[in-house]
Amino acid sequence: MIWKQNNEQQYPSGHSNMSNHTLSAAISKFYLNPSMADIFFKIETKIGTGEWESIPSHKFLLAAISDVFCSTFDEKKEINDFNIGGTSPTAFKEFLRLFYFDEVILTSANAKQVIVLAKKFNQKSETFVPLTASLSHSNRTSSGICART
Predict the structure, then answer these.
(1) Which of 34, 93, 102, 119 is 20 to 30 Å apart from 28, CA to CA?
(2) Is residue 10 part of a domain?
(3) How confident is the model at residue 69, as a pLDDT?
(4) What is the tally of structural domains in the chain?
(5) For residues 70 and 142, what is the distance between their CA atoms, to the nearest angstrom?
(6) What are 91-105's pLDDT values in tens digits?
(7) How do the residues of the chain divide into helix, strand and coil, expressed in percent and rounded to 5?
(8) Measured distance CA(102)–CA(116) in Å, rounded
(9) Could you tell me if residue 8 is inside a domain?
(10) Residue 18's pLDDT band (boundaries 50, 70, 90)?
(11) CATH no. for residue 117?
C-alpha cells in the first residue's frame, strides 16, 4: 500500500481525503435547508402576534460547537421543535451562520441579538470568541462587520 502525505497527515493511496475547504462547503449547503434537518427553531416574527417562523437546523452541528445545545439535545433526544424568544428570525439566522460557515455579518440591526444568542448558547466558534472581545476596524465592511477565520 502506498501512503501519501497530505497536510502533515498520511493517507493510503486512493483514500479520499476530504479537505477542510471541502468539508466546509458540504456543511454550508445545509444552512437554512430543511433537507435532513432534525430540529426546527420557532421564532416569533412579530412579538405578540402569534406568527412564528420555522428555521431548520441540524443537531449534530449545533451540539458540536455549543455545549448548551449538546446537553439539551442529549437530555431531550426526541425534541424536534425548539421555541426561541427575545430575538428576530433574521438575527437567529445570522447566529446560525456561525455554525455552518464559521463567519457572521453583524449590522447595527442584528449585532446585539447575535451576541446575546452566542453567549446564551455558549457558542465556541473560533470566529466568535475574538469577535466578542473586540471588533476591529479592519473587519468593517459597508454592510456591517464581517468576521471570518
Answers:
(1) 119
(2) no
(3) 94
(4) 1
(5) 35
(6) 999 999 999 998 888
(7) 40, 25, 35
(8) 17
(9) no
(10) low
(11) 3.30.710.10
Q: Nearest to residue 115, comparing CAs of 146, 92, 84?
A: 92
List the single range of 21-25, 37-41, 104-108 with lowest mean pLDDT: 21-25
Nearest to 57 by CA among 80, 76, 74: 80
Residue 16 lies in a domain: no
C-alpha angle with apex 31: 65 to 115, nearest 5 degrees? 50
Measured in degrees and rounded to the nearest 5, phi and psi for residue 18 equal -90, 115
Tell me, yes or no, whether 54 lies in a domain: yes
Residue 45 is classified by DSSP as: S
CA gyration radius, the chain: 18
Helix (H) or strand (E) holding 106: strand 103-106
DSSP string, 133-144: H---GGGEETTE
Reported as a pLDDT band with limits 50, 70 and 90, residue 143 is very low
Edge-first strand order for the sheet with 144-148 is: 103-106, 144-148, 140-141
Of 62, 113, 67, the residue nearest 90 (C-alpha): 113
pLDDT reported for residue 49: 80
